[in-house]
Prior knowledge:
The chain is α/β, with parallel strands linked by helices. It has 15 helices and 14 strands. The protein has an eight-stranded mixed β-sheet, with helices on both faces. A six-stranded parallel β-sheet has the order 11-10-9-12-13-14. The protein is globular. It starts with a strand and ends in a 15-residue tail after the last strand.
Amino acid sequence: MSRIGFAGMTHLGLNSAVASAAKGYTVCCFDEDKDLIVQLADGRPHVVEPDLERLMGEHAGRLQFTAEVSELASCPLVYIAPDVPTDNSGNSDLTQINALIERVDEAIPADIIMVVLSQVPPGFTRDLKLKAGRPLFYQVETLIFGRAVERALQPERFIIGCTDPTSPLPSPFEDYLRTFDCPLLPMRYESAELAKISINCCLVASISVANTLAELCEHLGADWSEIVPALKKDKRIGPHAYLSPGLGIAGGNLERDLNTVISLADRYGTDGNIVRAWTANSGYRKNWVLRLLHQHVFNRMPDPTIAVWGLAYKQNTHSTKNSPSLELIQHLDRYRLSVFDPVVKAAAVQGRKLEEHADALTACSGADVLAIMTPWPQFKNVPPADICRAMKGAVVIDPYRVLSKTACEAEGLTYFTLGSPIGESHADTSE
Length: 431
């Protein structure tokens, strides 16, 4: 098999399709949005990911973008891969994916393998009503915003939901998966669907530990960045553990899974209180910057100008879903805000007119406070001396330790970061 189909050209579908083309497959990329198809065919991705546009150009000859669902009929294997939207409470809206599955199922022969790649709740795949005889599988996606191309090209393993996990996979499907040279883990549909949620719950547990103890560090005189290396040397935790403190959980996918576990616990009468605690902790963490402003700025400066670097929920992505930056801005409606993000425009902030600037340094010109809300890599290259000269005030709030604490304090800036003693100068441990 040298041809494969992907239906749904959102973040998940596009990155997965481009990775398949990079592995040598001819890829039929279907989406109902004709304007989007024209844009993609022109080599202009609508999502931001490192290397995505470059790979689209390099493998353009193997990428066929189409708004005709019938084109998928020539593919032995078709992935259903749209992003599943969530509301502000983390509830999935399955309307679009159900409609897409129905349309694709009608358009392609019954012997074509269909694989649901989108994140869906347990029970979704088995409940699908497709053409009789259709081979159907669910595959867990583990893409990460800002690292989607890397993750799509170099997966750690493939988790595959099957009707019967003891039966061999159809050869077109197995041959495709083997191209990526990673372990295959077949299991029943519901196990695979819950495996995705289990992964995210483990990540949330690590994040919650880091957030809780980093906050204690701020009050005890300890520095969380000094503790992290000790934890990563522990084999039970490991070098890749999610131990960087942050401003709660954002992006949508983790929140979706927490909400799913809570809903399932309520339905079946099991204990979901630990997940409720994680959700509550995330909400509390999102207001860390706001609490800091009230404690150390607003009581001394009644009408400060605040510069905000970053609107995206994390670096290397265009997504603003549950962004801590946008959450903060909503609470600062009475203050003058000056903003810059290398990808996201100020128009993403609903109901608020902001002063938008073309670069980071200009955005903090004349500001009393600088809040670095998204750790974009290019922010590391702005010298603290230049920031000091540009600002009117001297307060820098840098939750993710983008800048060097030592360099900022050497310039006379009052520097705040997560997990570090407030108001004390310690050895710089920024990466």
